[in-house]
Specification:
Blueprint: H1 6-30, H2 42-57, E1 63-64, H3 65-77, H4 83-89, E2 102-103, H5 105-118, H6 125-144, H7 152-156
Antiparallel strand pairs: 1-2
Helix pairs in contact: 2-6, 3-4, 4-6, 5-6
């Protein structure tokens, strides 16, 4: 297309301006508001309730290995963690340890995750499992409101 006069140039700009306003008006007219609705399944609600029950029994900031194993078994039985996650959760805290001695499982899990990060090893299967364990321990900690206080079970043992 050849443009030979200023009139033709102004008509082209007028056409593109009016076409843009028509397109804008059409977009505004076709815009609909939608609302997303989230529904939790019965299983999801049960899982949350079971997790609350478990969190009420255990203090991941001050628990023995024996308590950790019991908690891991409950989490696994209730379908809250996978068998691989339960194995990672129940990894012994050290080589020669007393299974009744209490320690901070959250702090130990954080150290493991930090070690994975220091190696740049955050995407391996093992590192992903350790990160998942840390997330579960922190969830239990927050649900129980444990930030260093002992749970009733921790006091009994």
């Amino acid at each position: 297309m050849q443009i030979n006069s200023p009139d033709q140039v102004s008509r082209i700009y007028q056409m593109s301006d009016s076409a843009a306003s028509v397109a804008t008006n059409l977009n505004v007219a076709n815009t609909k508001q939608t609302t997303d609705k989230v529904t939790l399944s019965e299983a999801g609600l049960n899982a949350e309730s079971k997790l609350q029950d478990i969190a009420a029994k255990y203090n991941p900031n001050n628990m023995s290995y024996n308590q950790l194993v019991s908690m891991g078994a409950e989490l696994l039985e209730n379908g809250l963690i996978t068998s691989q996650e339960s194995l990672a959760l129940m990894a012994p805290p050290s080589r020669n340890f007393d299974p009744d001695e209490k320690y901070d499982t959250v702090a130990l899990a954080k150290l493991s995750a930090a070690f994975d990060q220091s190696l740049g090893n955050t995407h391996s299967k093992d590192a992903t499992l350790r990160a998942s364990v840390l997330e579960m321990l922190q969830t239990i900690q927050s649900l129980a409101g444990n930030s260093g206080k002992e749970s009733s079970q921790a006091k009994e043992v």
